[in-house]
Amino acid sequence: MTVEQREGGADLPLEFPFSRRGDAVPAECAWLREKRPVARVRTLTGDVAWLVSSYALAKQVLEDERFSLRHTAAPGVPRQYALTIPPEVVDNMGEIHSAGLREAVMRSLAPRSDPGLADWLRDRAHDLIDALVAEGAPVDLRAGFADPYSAALHCKVIGVPYADWRRLMSGLDIAFMTSARPFAGATASWRKDHGYMLERLRQAEPNGGGLLGRFAALRAPEDGGGPSDEQLATVAVSLFGAGAVSTSAFLVHAVLALVREPALVRRLRDEPESVGRAVEELLRYNLSIGDGLPRLATADVRLGDVLVRAGELVLVLVEGANFDPGVFADPERLDLDRADNPHLSFGAGSHFCPASALGRLHARVALGALVERLPSLRLAVPLGQLVWRTGFIKRLPERLPVTW
C-alpha cells in the first residue's frame, strides 16, 4: 500500500513491519508522524496493533507502567509475530526482581564491576583486526569483527568459554527469527541453548566469575527456597542472546553509517576524544530495530487522539521517534557534534536497557580500534548490493564487505 493510498484509507490497518533495509529511514515514518502518530497496523500474525511513531508518544508508552512488556507473551494476546521462545522465558525475565536476581544481573552488566574490561575489550578488538589485516581486504566485517567481538564480550559477562562463541551465535539466527506461525526448530533451538547454559551453570564455582558464577551462589538448596537452576539458566541464555544480537547489529549499522561518509572515519581517528559523542549519535541514527518495541495495554490509556483499550498491542516505532524533527534538528543528517541527544535506542522507563553502559563501552572501544587501524575503511561493494535479512528481529545485512 502506498502513502497516497493510505491518505484515503484511515480505517485500514497498514501492513507492518515496513522496509527491511537498514540504509534509509522508511518513507512511512514521516507520513505517520504527521498524519497518524498512533496508527492501526496489521502484524505478521494478522493481529491488529497500534503503531506509535512520534517521540513524545513513544516516550509516553515506554514510561507508562500500564503498557507491559511481560504481558506480550501471555496466551491469546495479539502479537507482532509468533513466539520463538517458550512463554515462561518472558515470565522468568520478568521475575528478575521478585526472584532476587536483580543485583547479580546488574553487577554483571555494569562495566565498573570489572575495572580491566575496557583493556580486555581493546585487546580482543585488535586481535580481530590483526586477523582481518592478515587475511587481506576485502573482508566481511560482520562475520570477521562485529559478531565475534560482540560474542566475546557476552561470553565474558555471562562466564562461558569464548571458544563456544560460534555455537552460541548460530543459535540466535533461529531464536530471533520472526514468523507468522510457530515452527518446530525454534523450540529445539531454545532447548539446545538452554541445556548448554544449564550445564555451564552447574559447573560454575559460586562467585567464580561472570554472571554464572554469581548465579551459582544463588542456586536453590536441595530443600528449595531459591531460584531454580532452570530459571537461572533461562535468564543467562536470554541476556546473552539479547545482548550479543543487539551489540553486533549496532556495530554493523554504525560502521555502515560511517563508511558512507569517509571524512567521519578520518575525523574519529584524528579526534579519538569525540568517539563517545559519536556513539550517541550513531545510536540515534541506527535503524536496526525494525519491528517496533512491543507493549500490551493493561488498562485503557489515551495516546494522543486515540483511546487504547486494555488488551491491545502497542508497538513503538523507534526510528520514528529517533528521527522526529520536533526533537532532533535535521534528523536525517549524521551529526557527530549533536549535543542534545535524548534518543530512545535503549528504551525508557522501567525497561530502560540495563546494559546501556556496557553497550556504550563496547561501541566506543570497537569503533576507536577500527578507525585507528583502518582509517581508509569503506564499503567494498555498491550500497545497493547489500543483501538485507528478512524474517529477523533486527534489520541486518547478511554480509558487510569492506576494504581499506
From TrEMBL:
InterPro entries annotated for this entry? Answer: Cyt_P450 (IPR001128), Cyt_P450_B (IPR002397), Cyt_P450_CS (IPR017972), Cyt_P450_sf (IPR036396)
Please give the Pfam families that the UniProt record associates with this protein.
p450 (PF00067)
Keyword Transmembrane listed? The answer is no
Q: Do you know which PROSITE patterns this protein is assigned to?
A: CYTOCHROME_P450
Query: Which keywords does the record carry?
Result: Heme, Iron, Metal-binding, Monooxygenase, Oxidoreductase
What protein family is recorded?
Belongs to the cytochrome P450 family.
How is this protein named in the record? Cytochrome P450
| Naturally occurring in which organism (per UniProt) | Streptantibioticus ferralitis
